[in-house]
């Protein structure tokens, strides 16, 4: 059973109700429970706070020790945050690697194009060399076009979002302590 499903069952609420609380659609929650989609950072925080509130209400009803249930709810939320942070950190590393590769390929293609242009001027008029150099220059230009500025900006934006999510998760950890 999915962790979110078990939390929802312990809260004794429907998918529709939990989806409303988290600010997502019921179908999105269903996909999240089936591990086909990821829960957003904001929804993770809302779910954790909901679980802590539910635990504190239950402990008042049962009039049991205050620390026992709230510690359990906090620990559950902490585990949830750790899982989210791990996933964000892995995605961040992947994006950073992709950006580094994009930059190095682009730089290599630019240098290669520059060298080929100077060689092309040297061999101007020598048919077979010039044709070969033109093909190599076209190949370099294709590599440079493969990574257009919009793609680079998208990756940089994703990196910034992931760094922000990790910072928010760390803040939530500090609140639990």
Which key features would you list for this structure?
177 residues; mainly alpha; 7 helices; elongated
Structure, described:
With 177 residues, this protein is mostly helical. Helices cover 86% and strands 0% of the residues. It contains seven helices and no strands. Helix 2 (15-22) packs across helix 3 (26-33), helix 5 runs antiparallel to helix 6 (127-146) and helix 5 runs antiparallel to helix 7. The chain starts with a helix and ends with a helix.
Structural class: mainly alpha
Biggest sheet character = none
Radius of gyration: 27 Å
Mean of the pLDDT scores?
76
DSSP strand tally: 0
Strand content: under 5%
Described by the principal axes of the CA atoms, the overall outline is elongated
| Distinct helical segment count | 7
Distance between the termini: 29 Å
Oligomer: single chain
The ordered H/E elements are HHHHHHH
**What percentage of residues falls in helices of 4 or more residues?**
over 70%
Unreliable segments of 5+ consecutive residues: none
């Amino acid at each position: 059973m999915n962790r979110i499903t078990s939390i929802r069952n312990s809260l004794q609420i429907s998918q529709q109700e939990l989806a409303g609380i988290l600010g997502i659609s019921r179908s999105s929650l269903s996909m999240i429970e089936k591990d086909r989609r990821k829960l957003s950072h904001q929804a993770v925080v809302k779910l954790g706070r909901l679980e802590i509130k539910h635990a504190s209400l239950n402990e008042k009803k049962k009039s049991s020790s205050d620390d026992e249930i709230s510690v359990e709810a906090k620990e559950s939320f902490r585990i949830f945050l750790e899982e989210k942070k791990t996933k964000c950190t892995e995605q961040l590393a992947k994006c950073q690697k992709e950006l580094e590769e994009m930059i190095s390929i682009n730089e290599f293609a630019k240098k290669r194009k520059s060298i080929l242009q100077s060689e092309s001027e040297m061999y101007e008029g020598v048919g077979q060399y010039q044709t070969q150099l033109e093909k190599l220059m076209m190949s370099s230009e294709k590599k440079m076009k493969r990574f257009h500025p919009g793609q680079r900006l998208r990756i940089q934006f994703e990196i910034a979002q992931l760094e922000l999510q990790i910072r928010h998760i760390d803040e939530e950890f500090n609140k639990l302590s």
